[in-house]
């Protein structure tokens, strides 16, 4: 599992080199976020159902997610790839509440460590 997470983090960090691996777009007003479907299938029940169900919808893009601020979405994006939170990110109560909703919405698989636990730990360490 550690090797897999290292590979996922490499894909995130080498964004331009791995553009062909990113076959799904989450489009927000200000930016497009590209993800490999395989990573989303691994991390999210929502996307697993979307990509593996037998439907006529072969879309490779979703839009909005306005319930998450840019900062919260960036935390979500980094966690999807690395199962970590960037050290330089300041965690606030508002971000915790937003991501709590996001965790439920995306039906995230709560790996060890899970995103909510990491947020709480980082928040407590900051204060």
Describe the protein.
The protein has 127 residues and is mainly alpha-helical. The protein contains six helices and three strands. Helix 2 (37-43) packs across helix 3 and helix 4 packs across helix 5 (93-106). The N and C termini lie far apart (32 Å). The model has no long low-confidence stretch (mean pLDDT 78). It comes from Anaeramoeba ignava (Anaerobic marine amoeba). This is BTB domain-containing protein. Residues 22-89 form the BTB domain. It holds the Pfam family BTB.
Overview features:
single chain; 127 residues; three-stranded mixed β-sheet; BTB/POZ_dom; BTB domain-containing protein; SKP1/BTB/POZ_sf
Count of individual helical segments: 6
Given helix and strand content, the structural type is: mainly alpha
Q: Can you give the helix content as a percent range? A: 40-55%
Low-confidence stretches: none
Major sheet description: 3 strands, mixed
Query: How many whole angstroms does the radius of gyration measure?
Result: 14 Å
Q: Helix-strand pattern, N to C? A: HEEHHEHHH
Shape designation: globular
Can you count the beta strands? 3
Summed over residues and divided by their number, the pLDDT gives a mean of: 78
What topology, given as strand order, has the largest sheet? 2-1-3
Amount of beta strand: 5-15%
Task: Give the terminus-to-terminus CA distance.
Answer: 32 Å
Protein name: BTB domain-containing protein
Pfam families: BTB
InterPro entries: BTB/POZ_dom, SKP1/BTB/POZ_sf
Domain BTB: 22-89
